[in-house]
């Protein structure tokens, strides 16, 4: 049996209450948190447990999803991936991804992105994916270029973090570009 949610290195799965510890630990790396979006004040273990339980109990949507990226064999959480800004009229969506620092540079992000795009393009009939990446996140910029995303725009000085302003790059990939690069 083959699952559409399993790649070469990872599996995408729903969040479980016990995942709270891994994600709570990932929050300790402030630079990695900033690369994803924004730094928040520390939260308690009780808050992290509560959030994990609430997310595990949420009803899932076919298009707006929030999944754990887990190791293929051990099923241990290494990060998360989600879709947002779903536009069913025009067939576009955006996604965000975060990998815990101990799991960087192992191919987990690229594998997870390909799995997600395959689902959104070939199961949900979307025609274009978008991602925004901050200029200070050089590994993510390189990842998106390596995966075949096209740089479509740049918002100058659109974010302030760690005492500096960052530009924000907009990347896009159409279903045709995905098919050509990552033959489904």
Search tags:
single chain, 184 residues, alpha+beta, Aminopeptidase, 7-stranded mixed beta sheet, 6 helices, 7 strands, 32% helix, globular, GNAT_dom, EC 2.3.-.-, Acyl_CoA_acyltransferase
Verbal overview:
There is one protein chain. With about 180 residues, the protein is α+β, with helices and mostly antiparallel strands. It has one domain (about 10-180): 3-Layer(aba) Sandwich (Aminopeptidase). Helices cover about 30% and strands about 30% of the residues. It has six helices and seven strands, in the order βαααβββαβαββα. It has helices at about 20-25, 30-35, 45-55, 110-120, 140-145, 175-180, and strands at about 10-15, 65-70, 75-85, 90-100, 130-135, 150-160, 165-175. A seven-stranded mixed sheet has the order 1-2-3-4-5-7-6, sandwiched between helices. Helix 1 crosses helix 3 (about 45-55). The mean pLDDT is about 95.
Radius of gyration using CA atoms only: 16 Å
CA-based shape: globular
Note the beta-strand portion: 25-35%
Percent of residues in helices: 25-40%
Q: Averaging pLDDT over every residue, what do you get?
A: 93
Structural class call reads: alpha+beta
> What's the SSE pattern?
EHHHEEEHEHEEH
Q: Return the CATH class.
A: Alpha Beta
CATH fold title: Aminopeptidase
Count of individual domains = 1
Strand order of the largest sheet: 1-2-3-4-5-7-6
Terminus-to-terminus distance: 18 Å
The total beta strand count reads: 7
The CATH superfamily appears as Gcn5-related N-acetyltransferase (GNAT)
Low-confidence parts: none
The largest β sheet comes out as: 7 strands, mixed
């Amino acid at each position: 049996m083959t699952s559409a949610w399993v790649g070469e290195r990872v599996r995408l799965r729903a969040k479980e209450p016990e995942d709270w510890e891994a994600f709570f630990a990932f929050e300790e790396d402030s630079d990695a948190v900033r690369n994803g979006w924004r730094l928040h004040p520390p939260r308690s273990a009780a808050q992290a447990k509560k959030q994990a339980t609430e997310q595990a109990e949420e009803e899932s949507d076919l298009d707006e999803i929030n999944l754990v990226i887990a190791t293929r064999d051990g099923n241990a959480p290494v990060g998360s991936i989600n879709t947002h800004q779903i536009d069913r009229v025009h067939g576009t969506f955006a996604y965000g991804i975060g990998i815990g620092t101990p799991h960087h540079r192992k191919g987990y992000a690229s594998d997870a992105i390909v799995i997600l795009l395959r689902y959104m393009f070939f199961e949900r009939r979307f025609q274009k994916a978008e991602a925004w990446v901050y200029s200070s996140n050089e590994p993510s910029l390189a990842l998106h270029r390596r995966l075949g995303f096209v740089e479509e725009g740049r918002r100058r000085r659109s974010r302030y973090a760690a005492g500096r302003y960052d530009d924000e790059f907009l990347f896009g990939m159409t279903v045709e570009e995905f098919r050509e690069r990552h033959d489904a």
